[in-house]
């Protein structure tokens, strides 16, 4: 059962710029290279062209929401460098409100993305993202209080996640990626938790589950009275609620680059929930959005607009 009352945020009759969502999270300058295979230690391999673009889980989710028609606001930090200027400009061009993106001394976040066989291996240099502390999030208190939903991830410090949990008055969605243990304040406040298998195991302090029963047991041990949607890549997702379990199959797609698949899933799940659908139906919509995402290269560049998602 979802604990927040979403009725006050409207339903399917809303216009395309429907209820607003705030994203508290990371912004990265991505450098992506496609490889035939990953190098071994000490080895150099040839790669394709270096493609630069907007990334970071927070920025990806904000862009995904904006392209699906939501009014998105970004709460984050960039460096006082050319990359920071470019990141702000790119989000602004998507129609995302960047008034709560702070500019701090030092470099912006950078991610080196190695794409091989459609999957991605990513090295992140946090840069300015590590400077998104509780104080900077509290400076956006008005934004967070007015948002229909607040999304957070784990590429920023715990203090930012805790502050967002305390300030959010709407729906609070936690995507615990990359995997790390989270403060109880964050887990207890989350209306929906959206981990993958590894992240679920990290949070629950158990081994990575190998079957449906294992997924359900871990999810319910972690949050017995709350909802968890566990993503499984090409195996779809599992919706675990106190009253039932639903398996949501992946949508067939040609795998080109899975870099932003999880981000698009979380954003689309939130988008659909704010339209008033069930959690299982929201996960089905999210699977369709993610299928389009993985069929295209890049992080934010791969995220589809609503009209590009098959009915």
From TrEMBL:
The record's EC number reads 2.7.1.15
Residues holding K(+): 257, 259, 293, 296, 298, 302
* Key words of the record: ATP-binding, Carbohydrate metabolism, Cytoplasm, Kinase, Magnesium, Metal-binding, Nucleotide-binding, Potassium, Transferase
Active site positions: 263
Which cofactor names does the annotation list?
A: Mg(2+)
Question: Which GO annotations describe the biological process of this protein?
Answer: D-ribose catabolic process
- Whether Metal-binding counts among this entry's keywords is yes
Question: Could you tell me what reaction this enzyme catalyses?
Answer: D-ribose + ATP = D-ribose 5-phosphate + ADP + H(+)
Give the pathway annotation: Carbohydrate metabolism; D-ribose degradation; D-ribose 5-phosphate from beta-D-ribopyranose: step 2/2
Gene3D superfamilies xref list:
3.40.1190.20
Q: How is the cofactor bound?
A: Requires a divalent cation, most likely magnesium in vivo, as an electrophilic catalyst to aid phosphoryl group transfer. It is the chelate of the metal and the nucleotide that is the actual substrate.
Q: What CDD domains does the annotation carry?
A: ribokinase
In terms of PROSITE patterns, this protein maps to: PFKB_KINASES_1
Family, according to the entry, reads as follows:
Belongs to the carbohydrate kinase pfkB family.
Task: State the oligomer form and interacting partners.
Answer: Homodimer.
The cross-references to HAMAP family, in alphabetical order and at most eight, read: Ribokinase
PANTHER family per the UniProt record, alphabetical: RIBOKINASE (PTHR10584:SF166), SUGAR KINASE (PTHR10584)
Functional summary from the UniProt entry: Catalyzes the phosphorylation of ribose at O-5 in a reaction requiring ATP and magnesium. The resulting D-ribose-5-phosphate can then be used either for sythesis of nucleotides, histidine, and tryptophan, or as a component of the pentose phosphate pathway.
Protein known as: Ribokinase
């Amino acid at each position: 059962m979802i604990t927040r009352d979403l009725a006050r945020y409207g339903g399917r009759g809303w216009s395309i710029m429907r209820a607003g969502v705030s994203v508290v999270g990371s912004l990265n300058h991505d450098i992506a290279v496609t490889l035939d295979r990953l190098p071994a230690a000490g080895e150099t391999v040839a790669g394709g062209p270096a493609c630069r673009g907007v990334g970071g889980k927070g920025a990806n989710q904000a862009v995904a929401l904006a392209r699906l028609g939501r009014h998105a606001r970004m709460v984050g930090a960039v460096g006082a460098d050319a990359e920071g200027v470019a990141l702000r400009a790119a989000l602004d061009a998507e129609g995302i409100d960047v008034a709560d993106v702070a500019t701090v001394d030092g470099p912006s976040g950078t991610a080196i993305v190695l794409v091989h066989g459609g999957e991605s291996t990513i090295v992140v240099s946090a840069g300015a993202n590590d400077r998104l502390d509780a104080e900077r999030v509290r400076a956006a208190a008005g934004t967070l209080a007015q948002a229909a939903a607040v999304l957070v991830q784990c590429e920023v410090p715990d203090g930012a996640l805790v502050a967002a949990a305390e300030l959010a008055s709407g729906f609070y969605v936690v995507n615990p990626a990359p995997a790390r243990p989270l403060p109880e304040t964050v887990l207890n406040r989350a209306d929906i938790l959206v981990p993958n298998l590894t992240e679920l195991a990290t949070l629950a302090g158990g081994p990575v589950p190998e079957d449906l029963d294992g997924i359900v047991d871990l999810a319910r041990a972690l949050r017995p009275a709350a909802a968890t949607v566990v993503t499984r890549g090409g195996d779809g997702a599992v919706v675990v609620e106190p009253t039932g379990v639903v398996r949501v199959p992946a949508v067939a797609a040609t795998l080109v680059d899975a870099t932003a698949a999880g981000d698009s899933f979380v954003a689309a799940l939130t988008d659909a929930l704010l339209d008033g659908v069930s959690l299982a139906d929201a996960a089905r919509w999210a699977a369709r959005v993610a299928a389009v995402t993985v069929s295209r290269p890049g992080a934010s560049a791969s995220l589809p607009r609503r009209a590009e998602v098959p009915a």
